[in-house]
Design goal:
Elements (H helix, E strand, L loop, with lengths): L14 H14 L3 H8 L5 H14 L8 H16 L10
Length: 92
């Protein structure tokens, strides 16, 4: 049985996407409901920790005094690009 090699895999994010994802992962990793969900497939912790750690090492913004303002601005810019994605469907 041939297995695929363990090559690195690259995912590209904008700085705004990385900042918002980093914050979300930081909040979710300490959340009991999130842990319960992820523990249904423990192997998922491996990529989650890799992504989270990479973001933490790469984003200098998380250590800046105006981090909250930067995060809020990034969230707004990203929401502006989503259109209706993530909104509940309109009632008939």
């Amino acid at each position: 049985m041939d297995l695929l090699p363990e090559d690195d895999f690259t995912i590209r994010l904008t700085r705004d996407q990385a900042l918002v994802l980093s914050d979300w992962l930081d909040r979710m990793e300490g959340n009991k409901e999130f842990a319960k969900l992820v523990n249904e497939d423990r192997a998922v912790w491996s990529p989650i920790h890799r992504i989270s750690g990479t973001l933490d090492k790469s984003l200098v913004e998380i250590f800046m005094p105006d981090y909250t303002a930067r995060l809020d601005a990034a969230r707004e810019r990203l929401k502006d690009t989503l259109g209706d994605l993530g909104h509940p469907p309109a009632e008939p």
